[in-house]
Write a structure and sequence with these properties.
Shape: elongated
Order of helices and strands: EEEEHHEEEHHHHHHHEEEEHEEEEH
Strand content: 15-25%
Number of helices: 11
Structural class: alpha+beta
Radius of gyration: 30 Å
Number of strands: 15
Distance between the termini: 18 Å
Length: 373
């Protein structure tokens, strides 16, 4: 169930209650059969883990419903539609890409599409990371030079010019490179679900704003804020380096998550994209695999892949079923024998009847199990 999914009002016509629901206040999973604390609002029933959560909800129900809107039922995908979920919170299911409202992670497609389509978020994060590296290294060098030999640095570059150099380098390093973190951090505050992006945005944002004020208006700081030379210290390099390191973590994470989908994509690529359907007059027509329906008669020629699961009607051949059985020797197929989609026909030709298509095929079920795992 999705977060804060309401329970239907009690009725003798309803089936067995769902196995678990979520408290809309704290987000905990609660067993409806054992829940003692319940409340109704706008025609929907809600359950709670404690009386305290119930009291908070009844005092201000709109706050928790807006932060975690009630689901009207399980989200299902139509033909050709992709559902997106959070790797850390699988109860979050959406019909479009975005970020998880709980942890801020980017949503992943439940079943990756076939092919090697590039991940736009990985590409964006990689670009921001390399820009962050280019801007952070000079800032880090300046900070280290000030720490180890400040006098020599002052003789090479005037202190005021150095301030402007740090400001010019630090501003894009924090604001542009770290902009996705500020967006997710703000979303976590609005939804009242604080996560790691809240800390990242708060830490780097405060460091940058403090340094910006110190660079533009150093006179407003009291003596206690200044170093032994009377200067107000800056933290541009700290904010920039933190953003860059977090970007590195995001890039590594996104790459790892992309690699985990490679096996699913490889399975999806096994299926043929088109099928050859027999018309009533005996002629063939080439159609997309999505247009095949149970009962269609399909012709499979030598060297082609079997489009869907079904049974042989006419002809004889040998089919390479190693992708399913691991057996290297092709299996003989005669009229009445079953064939599996995505297996490879050998030298013979045959006509088959489609029996299981779409998500009902054996290959689709394997893909679904791998994706769920």
């Amino acid at each position: 169930m999705t977060a804060a999914e309401p329970l239907p009002p009690p009725s003798r016509h309803h089936a067995a209650p769902p196995a678990a629901a979520r408290d809309p206040v704290c987000g905990m999973t609660v067993d409806p059969a054992r829940a003692k604390h319940r409340a109704e609002h706008a025609g929907h029933g809600y359950i709670f883990c404690s009386a305290r959560c119930r009291a908070k909800f009844t005092a201000e129900p709109a706050r928790y419903i807006i932060a975690s809107p009630p689901a009207r039922g399980p989200i299902t995908a139509t033909a050709g539609e992709v559902l997106w979920t959070c790797p850390m919170h699988p109860q979050i299911v959406r019909k479009e890409p975005g970020n998880c409202p709980i942890c801020g992670m980017a949503l992943e497609p439940i079943t990756p599409a076939a092919g090697d389509a590039p991940n736009p978020e990985l590409r964006d994060m990689t670009r921001r990371f390399w820009v962050g590296v280019a801007l952070s290294l000079p800032l880090l060098a300046i900070a280290m030079a000030e720490h180890f030999n400040k006098a020599a640095l002052d003789t090479l570059v005037s202190p005021r010019l150095l301030v402007w150099v740090q400001l010019i380098l630090g501003t894009p390093a924090v604001l542009w490179c770290g902009w996705p973190f500020f967006q997710r951090g703000w979303a976590s505050v609005v939804s009242r679900r604080l996560n790691m992006f809240t800390l990242i945005a708060l830490g780097t944002g405060v460091a940058y704003v403090y340094s910006l004020v110190a660079a533009l208006a150093p006179g407003i700081f009291p003596a206690s804020f200044r170093d032994q030379d009377g200067r107000v210290p800056f933290y541009f390099e700290a904010a920039a380096v933190i953003v860059t390191l977090v970007l590195l973590g995001q890039v590594l994470e996104l790459r790892a998550r992309s690699q985990t989908s490679s096996a699913i994509r490889a399975l999806l690529d096994l299926a043929p994209k088109r099928a050859r359907r027999l018309r009533a007059d005996g002629s063939d027509e080439d159609i997309p695999l999505e247009d095949v329906i149970p009962g269609d008669r399909l012709r499979v020629r030598p060297g082609e892949k079997v489009p869907v699961d079904g049974a042989v009607l006419e002809g004889r051949s040998a089919v390479d079923e190693s992708m399913i059985t691991g057996e290297p020797v092709p299996a003989e197929k005669n009229p009445g024998d079953k064939v599996t989609g995505a297996t490879v026909n050998a030298t013979g030709s045959f006509v088959m009847r489609a029996e299981r298509v779409g998500s009902d095929t054996l290959l689709a079920q394997i893909v679904a199990m791998v994706a769920e795992a």
